[in-house]
UniProtKB/TrEMBL annotation:
GO annotation terms (biological process): glutathione biosynthetic process; glutathione catabolic process
The entry's keywords: Acyltransferase, Glutathione biosynthesis, Hydrolase, Transferase, Zymogen
PTM summary: Cleaved by autocatalysis into a large and a small subunit.
Catalytic-site annotation from UniProt: 365
Organismal lineage: Bacteria, Pseudomonadati, Pseudomonadota, Gammaproteobacteria, Chromatiales
Record note on quaternary structure: This enzyme consists of two polypeptide chains, which are synthesized in precursor form from a single polypeptide.
Entry protein name: Glutathione hydrolase proenzyme
Keyword Acyltransferase (UniProt): yes
Molecular function per GO: glutathione hydrolase activity; leukotriene C4 gamma-glutamyl transferase activity
Length: 554
């Protein structure tokens, strides 16, 4: 999809009749787990729209991919409603408990206590996913929650087979999962990681989901489930109170938008940094005619724009309900032009300036993309942060809590375990949402619409950039999800790269330019992508070859 003139694009849009059925097929879904993709399609087949399917896919992922997301976590749902073009981002991000304070994770000497914001009850923000699903169903869906949650309830009750990815994630978090009786019971067998194909049943989670199916939002945030959540958290040393749950609300936020080579991106707004950083990188790259540079210089330029956008992320971004942010400026092409002014073609810019920034988010998280036959679409990235979140299942609820509190700056101004420094904009405050990198995105080209996103902590945003660059070069979903990845996030001042992302010769040349390199042992990310070709009406999709997910068009 090379650059077309805006005039041609406008002609094409005018030519497309507004009521045209969006797609020849019933719909397309790409998610990180085949059972979630299949359940979403079953809901489309029952007459549900993309928003109903989005409830189902998220709920099934909560059951079968408990290491990535869940009802004890949160996320962002980017929606496009076909009938009127309405677009919105549902912010179902976790909030800090009302009893939290900026020094929650510091000892009496003001030092960060290792692990406190990662493991156990103190690490858990107030979940947003149950509220977001209830909101999605009530405001945008057609089917009752009793229908859309049914597949997840069944899988929680009857169980699902353990796969290799589950085993790897459980192995990583085994010591923490063993700490808590309810977690052991739910996710381990005989105190060990379950063998392949063992069946994991979660009857208490099934019961909590059943209450949500019956009572919606209040089934989770008020009544017996809420009471058990608060009692269980407090008995294990946590600080939750009933008003934390009763006051939780989903926020509808205006997405952020940008344009690159005639392609229009719509992406996540704060409290995610994703859309702003993505659009800043694209705006900066638009200053260069990338096609004219040899591959190594293109990669150098991509790294330099990542460096600058991630520096701004660290400096400025946080929860918009608590912090004033110069969002319009950060996504302004003129501002990007200023950022690129000191990019040199023959030298890396050292990351000298120490912004008061934020930490690297957890490695897990999940993403799914949906387009239905009417053209409604959903791009959703959900998280409980680290694999298996805080590793704490609240007794009597089946709810595994997130450890999203680690996405706050534990101590503004000091480096965190990943070598990044924490900032004021993202300091802990009661009721505040922690900064995220989740970047659910739509891209409209002259040919159609892409829906894409991925997990992967702070690397999420640079993965989206690689995907969109592959799209700009004319590739389809397979190319976006499989493109080799490299990443720079300002600090630490290194290029991380997957095997195969930088040729040996390129590595040498990049080092000669002054870059420091950090080869990774394996790939990262798990992108789920769809494309609706508006010229022929066809849908296509791809699930990242690094994961076990599935993209299906029916
Ligand atoms: N915890 C991952 C993120 O929010 O970016």
């Amino acid at each position: 999809m090379r650059h077309q003139s805006p005039f041609l694009w406008l002609l094409l849009l005018l030519w497309l009749p507004p009521g045209l059925p969006a797609a020849q097929e019933r719909g397309a879904i790409a998610s990180a787990h085949p059972l979630a993709t299949e359940a979403g399609h079953a809901i489309l087949a029952q007459g549900g729209n993309a928003f109903d399917a989005a409830v189902t896919v998220a709920a099934v992922l909560a059951v079968v991919e408990p290491y990535s997301s869940g009802m004890g976590g949160g996320g962002f749902w980017l929606l496009h409603r076909a009938r009127d073009g309405f677009e919105v981002m549902l912010d179902g991000r976790e909030r800090a408990p009302l009893a939290a304070h900026r020094d929650l994770y510091l000892d009496s000497k003001g030092e960060v206590v290792p692990g406190l914001s990662v493991n156990g009850t103190l690490a858990a923000g107030i979940p947003g996913q149950p509220a977001a699903l209830a909101h999605l169903a009530a405001r945008y869906g057609r089917l009752p929650l009793a229908r859309t949650l049914a597949p997840a309830i069944r899988l929680a009750r009857e169980g699902f087979p353990v796969d290799g990815h589950y085993r790897r994630m459980a192995e990583w978090r085994l010591e923490q999962l063993r700490q808590w009786p309810a977690s052991k019971q739910q996710f381990l067998i005989d105190d060990a990681v379950p063998p392949l194909d063992a069946v994991v049943r979660q009857p208490q989670l099934a019961e909590t989901l059943r209450r949500m199916a019956e009572q919606g939002h209040d089934g989770f945030y008020r009544g017996p489930v809420a009471e058990r959540l608060v009692a269980g958290v407090r008995a294990a040393g946590g600080i939750w109170q009933l008003p934390d749950l009763a006051e939780y609300r989903v926020v509808e936020r205006e997405p952020v938008r940008g344009e690159y080579r005639g392609m229009k991106s719509t992406s996540a707004a704060p409290p995610s940094s994703g859309g702003i950083v993505l659009i800043s990188m694209l705006n900066q790259l638009a200053r260069f005619d990338l096609d004219k540079y040899p591959s190594v210089q293109r990669k150098h330029l991509v790294v330099e724009v990542m460096r600058r956008a991630y520096r701004d992320r660290a400096e400025y971004l946080g929860d918009p309900d608590f912090v004033d942010m110069p969002v319009a400026r950060l996504i302004d092409p003129d501002y990007a032009a200023g950022l690129t002014r000191d990019i040199q073609l023959d030298a890396a810019t050292p990351s000298r300036y120490q912004p008061a920034g934020t930490g690297l988010e957890g490695q897990d998280t999940t993403h799914y993309s949906i387009i239905d036959a009417e053209g409604n679409r959903v791009s959703a990235t959900l998280s409980i942060n680290y694999p298996f979140g805080s590793c704490f299942v609240v007794p009597g609820t089946g709810i595994l809590l997130n450890d999203e509190m680690d996405d706050f700056s534990a101590r503004p101004g000091a480096p965190n375990v990943y070598g990044l420094v924490g900032g004021e904009a993202n300091a802990i405050e009661p009721g505040k949402r922690m900064l995220s990198s989740m970047t659910p995105t739509f891209v409209e080209t002259d040919q159609g619409v892409a829906v894409l996103g991925t997990p992967g902590g702070s690397r999420i945003i640079s993965m989206l950039l690689h995907g969109i660059l592959a799209l700009a070069e004319g590739g389809g979903p397979e190319a976006w999800v499989s493109r080799p990845r490299y990443h720079h996030q300002y600090l630490p001042d290194v290029i991380q790269f997957e095997p195969g992302a930088l040729y040996t010769d390129e590595q040498r040349q990049l080092m000669e330019l002054g870059h420091k390199l950090k080869p990774l042992d394996s790939g990262y990310g798990n992108m789920q992508a769809l494309f609706w070709n508006r010229q022929d009406g066809h849908l296509s999709g791809a699930s990242d070859p690094r994961g076990i997910g599935k993209a299906v068009v029916e």
